[in-house]
User: Fold this.
Amino acid sequence: MILHRHMAGTLYVVATPIGNLEDVTQRALRVLRTVEIIACEDTRHTRKLLAHYGIEKPTISYHEHNERERAEQIADRIAAGEQVALVADAGTPAISDPGYRLVRECLERGLKVVPVPGPAAFVAALVASGLPTDRFFFGGFLPAKKNARRAALAEARTIAATLIFYEAPHRLAASLADAHAILGERQAAVARELTKIHEEIVRGRLSELAERFNSAPVRGEIVLVIDRTEIAEDEHVAREDQLPRLAERVAQLEADGADFRAALKRAARELGIPRDEAYRMLAAERDEHRAESHPKRHRTE
Ligand code: SAM
Assistant:
């Protein structure tokens, strides 16, 4: 068992608003008032929040570019007895934001870490999406590059849970189109500018949303929420059983000189599998194959 050193301080992981400044807890304000120092991503940004609540505290920057050395320095201060609050620019620190490294550093040294919960954009988006909340998968930011994004979506394809991703506005239409191509038709919601003046939650099928945001691009901060697969489980299993025949037939047609698209189209037609579904089946299989031959590096955060 790790004993907390008697004189050591505490790291408070404090959630702050994701837009509306009223969304801050009494406890968060009390902690921010009582700690010795506040570690934040952008000191100017956090000072605005502190000024709004009349809090005057020293701040220290802790962001993705200085995380490693700052985590050690901040943990040193906590070990020496200081109380430190960690905040992000918005929402909960360590959720698609820096924080994980500092939490680990403190825990490895036997220092106390206390969460002060509050807003997180993905929770707000999920509960207002109208999609099932019983089980969900939070995938963080979708990769910016098309191939990596499609691979991430293919990985999430069979997860029996509502899928949640963060997305940048200029990639929204492309991501919705990729989601439709890889995941098939599903209900989804685009939650934009939550808790802010231009808050908007658009619900619909992936194809409709892709079309809408392609013809009318938007700005702002965005969470994408997507329903779990609509294919009935037995239908899904039946389709998966066809995978070896599909893969074999595509390989055969490719060997005969057809390009991948033509081979896929023809093999799907011959086997009576919708073309989108055939594409997804093969994409998932090729990803699995790639993952087996190149095991992923262990992610540390
Ligand atoms: N730590 C934050 C949290 O707890 O949600 C997430 C920070 S991450 C760097 C920023 C992303 O979160 C944005 O690009 C957007 O996808 C999502 N986000 C943050 N605030 C949002 C808001 N008000 N409305 C919609 N999405 C938001």
Observations:
- Residues 295-301 have pLDDT under 50 and may be disordered.
